[in-house]
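Hello again,

I reread your note about wanting to compare the complex against the isolated chains. To keep things tidy I'm splitting this into two emails, and this first one only covers the full assembly. Below are the input lines as submitted, including protein chains and any nucleic acid or small-molecule components. They are followed by the predicted structure of everything together. The single-chain runs will come separately.
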Amino acid sequence: MSTSGLIVSGPEAPAPSARVRRTDWRVLLIGFFGLLTVLSVVEVITGDNSLVSSGQINAAVLAAVPIGLAALGGLWSERAGVVNIGLEGMMILGTWFGAWGALQFDNPWIGALVGVIGGALGGLLHAVATVTFGVDQIVSGVAIILLGTGITQFLSAAVFADMPGGGEIQSPPLPRMGTIPTGGLTDPLLTLERKDIFLVSDLAGVLYGLFTGMSQLTLVAILLVPFTWWVLWRTAFGLRLRSCGEHPVAAESLGVNVYYYKYVAVTISGALSGLGGAFLAIVMNNQYRDGQTAGRGFIGLAAMIFGNWRPAGLAGGAGLFGYMDAMRLRGGSAAVHALLLAFAIGLAIFAIWRYYKGSRTAAIASGVAAIGTYLVYASTDTVPQQFLYFAPHITTLIVLAMFSQHLRMPAADGRPYRRGEE
Amino acid sequence: MTTPDPSASASAAASPSAVELHGITKRFPGVVANRDIDIVVKHGQVHAIVGENGAGKSTLMKILYGMQRPDEGRIVVNGREAVFHTPADAIATGIGMVHQHFMLADNLTVLENVVLGSEPKGRLGRIDFDAARGRIKELSSTYGLDVDPDALLEELGVGDRQRVEIVKVLYRGARILILDEPTAVLVPHEVDELFDNLRDLKAEGLTVLFISHKLDEVLAVADEITVIRRGNTVATVHPGEVTARDLAELMVGSELPTPETRESTVTDEVVLDVQGLTLRTPDGRALLEDISFTIHSGEVLGIAGVEGNGQAELVESIMGMRHPAAGTIRLGDVDITGWSTRDRREAGIGYIPEDRQRHGLLLEAPLWENRMLGYQTVPPNERGGWIDRRGARTDTERIVGTYDVRTPGIDVAASSLSGGNQQKLVVGREMSGLSKVLIAAHPTRGVDVGAQAAIWDHLRAARAAGLAVLLISADLDELIGLSDTLQVILRGRLVASADPSTVTPEELGSAMTGAGDQP
Amino acid sequence: MNRWLSRDRLNRAVLALAAPLLAIVVSLVLTTLVLLLGGYSPSKTISVMVEAADRPRTQTQILNTATLYYLSAVAVAIGFRMNLFNIGVDGQYRLAALFAAAVGGAVSLPAPLHVFVTLLTAVLVGAMWAGIAAVLKVTRGVSEVISTIMLNFIATGLIAWLLNVDRLAVPVAGSNNIGTKPIPPSGQVPGISLISGSSVKVYGLIVLAIAVGIGYHIFLGRTRLGFDLRATGLSEHAAVASGVNVKRMVLLAMLLSGAVAGLVGMPELLGASFSYALNFPAGLGFTGIAIALIGRNRAVGMAVAALFWGFLDSAGNALDINRIPKEIVIILQGTIVLAVVIAYELVRRYRIAAEQRRVSRELATVPAAEEVPV
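Full-complex prediction:
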């Protein structure tokens, strides 16, 4: 990952040609259908139908949004060369300000807007500390998390405690955000899902879950992904911003005001995390609760890394972690147990692929892991409820362990920049 | 794309000179980098500016490019007086700079690198990629530069990258190009390609300022040469009127430090034996290819070469910081090929790194702690796992005294010392151990003349006492004067050896650039 | 030379204090603003806080909380000195405390040995948990920032699963609480009556905390390994050239950090609660980060910061009774942290530049940074 701290090189970084570069749509499509097939097979074997049920997918989309928005926030910041660990803090600010705004104006959209502003202020603070004062980026991020936690706890006790339905650590229920009507168009998919035909029903379920009952804010969040891609890779503003993260000295020599772009990027980063927080409070939990972010800011960063610092990949990462988060929220111990089997199969496929590509050690390691996972699956009936709690977090860890080596962060990411220094 | 002011080109047609510098003076604390510089560059000319390291060439070019402001003097571009606050101002008058260290982002494409900051825009701030691509291809063919706009920069080699840098400045409408040490990183056939490009540029009416210290190249391609020494313009000459020897004398004046060594102290005992050392990049490109040499006790082996031909990799391999694909390294009788850096140091390999601030010092730590760096596991710095403060401090005082490190005390941070004194500390430290071999990479780089002479004396004394030295340097006089044997490294191979007592700087220079090879 | 040295030392001391003082002043100003906006009296707030600290019982509590904070800060600081960010102290100390409590409750040994075994368990578990992140970083290049945070959550889940009557816990008599089997007297550490007039005693293991602080200082300043660690933190490149094996250092530093983290809960466990229950103190890991930052990773600095933080905590409780929102303390704490890191950076830059100028004045030479670029 992007750290401004110690950099330890693992096994030799792969040559440029071996590195993952541009997203190939065919690979994505194959991957998607492959994943669906594996899960369908597992559903048949275990008899657990909730792995790709419409309910699960619907919840997964919901859970993916705050993670994805945090990931987008991380992307904007790191593409300009600033590591933003404080996303969690900015998200926390977003949860509180989003709740407050929604209550104050009795309007979820204004709540979202206020949440954005709250997060943006946190981002601005991070920019001031790191860009102007040159504070270590990770230290500043940690300080902002502490500050954000403190401020929201204070404000919560001051404002929400006296409200009916609220308390010191939570807000009253918030006004609801509307969903996007599909007018019954998706109902046939539901019928198809209920028919329980292998793979076809599952696909129908996935599509139904994706498109039905989507919150309006979810749509906004989803649209922000291609919007980010367009701004950063297709406009002059975006090119200049990215150059600050790749080679700020070169950018400065061509007249790009590096400080300005870093400021803008980090503030937008905070704004996006704030939106994620507001979404969490308004749409997912319908209230502000102390500690409701539960590390999603960091999971978002992991999604960004998994996505190789690109919007498309990051969306995939958010989807994956959102899926695990949804599983946790829906309390599907049995489903997670079934997922173990899916994971074992996935590892086995991965091991075979690495073997053909010639990396013996990776293949053997994956193979052993596959067998180990299968044994755990076979010897247990279910996954304990408490383990479900950290399903997304351990997934993050495993994903990073497997993929960190092959990814490529912006070249000047995490390095402090001072004008005039070379 | 930015184009220069149209009225400027009108006056450009009228005035005979592209660039004039009059009375340029620039001071830094304690040093005058440029003093009363006077240069006139005519249109359509390749004008070379030569001088030693530290003569003030880079500062002058930074002033011309708007990266520094002169304290006195004026700049005239195309007949009009110009004041530059930032590089953008210089770019606006049609000046473009190709830096010695390329300013290119690996992760961006050629097109993105070229248009950055001057992007052609469509609606909503969208980049007009087609316009950019078209313009780049046009420039490419007009000037014979052959760049692919959609290639990712990290895939390009050095010669291609330089061409991208040239396209970058041409794209912004530069009519006056400044090239800072452009051939420093090129191999001979790439140098020829560059010179062809320069002739094409000249044919189209562009003006080129070419900064270099490679005298034979300058004579080959320049129309006029200005020599700078110690911040002053010494002379402006035509290549037909002078030889390399004349230029060298103008550059260096009569005060050339002559590090001549007379007696041979080379013994029969082989201290360092390197055989078949080969190092490759992950894609298989050779950084070092089959390097073999021996150094005896009391011998200085000098390695001459243009920067970037494998010297740094060689040094790091011997120190154990890089792991070669093949080859052996023996220290005396012992095969140390697989040893860690720490073990090698403890076995008696000293190291004066090329970049002292990055590899040789802890800038924020006091001097006495810096004395321990590299030797923290041996006396007098360490005893039984504990740091021997008194031992280290006493020894630091000794080094400060013996090596004349100018400092108020040993508790100041290393960052407070001047470059020369930092280097003296490093040299003193590395020659204090019971070293059998000393690897000295550019040991007097960035060091004032007095300190340089002192360091040479210390090296000679240590050599007389039996130390074996591997000397890497870009200073040919240093190499010739200090070495007992000389080898030349080119593209990762040792391609020639020379006798220091008979070889001349010019001969060595041609071996280093492969000028003697048939392409 | 000696005269010069002592002036230099005095200058350094002044500058070292300047940053936190500056930060505290700025934070006080901001907090005063917040209080005024909320309609509370700043002077009353301060007087309540100071009065509270005057009582012996409060002073004991300050010492006790400071002990825990200090251990946590040292754990974090070991990593910080090497540019490693161990944000996982929180998970490490809780997991370590759980296992230590379980072991302590299960065995029966003569007094000093019993305590020793319990402490050893804590140290080993803490080190192991941090070790996971270290191995991931060294072998797979995973950032320790993210991995330690993820491990925090995993630890929480594991603890919740283990703290169950089927596994490590037993019901606590007379409440809904469950906890590990209480540690018998042979495994308990008696308190010290350090402050006269106080009904509560100071944790006996404050001695351990002081020893850890001294050990930290000596290890980093006086041993070769400590030198290697500091060198890696100051300049990784120079450290590698000097022979340091960075991967080994990462492992060592993280393991040490985790080991000390394991001790964080011990004073409380062996001095007061004797069992790990649902209400075991939480969040000490993050406080440790704040204190390490404020104390600039120095043994004495962190001790002062820990005491100050303890003071602020107790002040919070006093404010609550006086109907001033105790969260104002949290705001103060948050702003101090941010202000301190900014102030330290500014002071650091000033100090380097000032020293360079002074040395060049004394010697009439040009410091390296200002030499003509060639």
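For quick reference: Chain C is about 70% helix and 0% strand.

B.
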